[in-house]
Design goal:
The protein is built from three helices and seven strands; from the N terminus they run βαββββαββα. By secondary structure, the protein is an alpha/beta fold. The chain has one domain: 2,3-Dihydroxybiphenyl 1,2-Dioxygenase, domain 1. The protein has a four-stranded mixed beta sheet with strand order 1-4-3-2, with helices on one face. Strands 5-7-6 form a three-stranded mixed beta sheet, covered by helices on one side. A hairpin with a 3-residue loop joins β3 and β4.
């Protein structure tokens, strides 16, 4: 069977938002920036390292109205600490439906992209079964 894993996620950011992108993803969330390939320099894409082998790519695109619930999810070690850090920085984390063993909240980045933050505490299927 073929092995499939996530390599990167690409999300839009407005033209001219390089400093704001770095302030949110590196300064606030702590994601290290990695160089984008030379062949993509004209696209003004900004790349960040996610964990051991995944990446986040923030590409330049004019803002669009989007009412969808598309989002990416990042696993973090200190969920309450990150929530507090985001609030102090002026962001508004919000709660959604509970998933057993996966405390979580959502927040918009400076450009309206939705990010889910979670901590994996256990297998939600087993925890769900145990609650019946």
């Amino acid at each position: 069977m073929m092995s499939i894993r996530l390599q990167h996620v690409s999300i839009p950011r407005p033209p001219g938002s390089e400093a704001q992108t770095r302030a949110f993803y590196t300064d606030l969330l702590g994601l290290p920036e990695i160089p984008a390939p030379n062949s993509l320099q004209a696209d003004e894409v900004i790349w960040f390292k996610l964990g051991d082998d995944a990446e986040l790519h923030c590409f330049r695109e004019a803002p669009l109205e989007d009412a969808s619930n598309r989002h990416l999810c990042l696993v973090v070690e200190d969920l309450p600490g990150l929530r507090q850090k985001l609030r102090k920085a002026g962001y508004q984390p919000y709660d959604v439906e509970v998933i057993p063993g996966r405390p979580r909240f959502f927040c918009h980045d400076p450009f309206g992209n939705i990010i889910e933050f979670t901590t994996i505490e256990g297998d939600y299927l087993e925890l769900q079964q145990a609650r019946r």
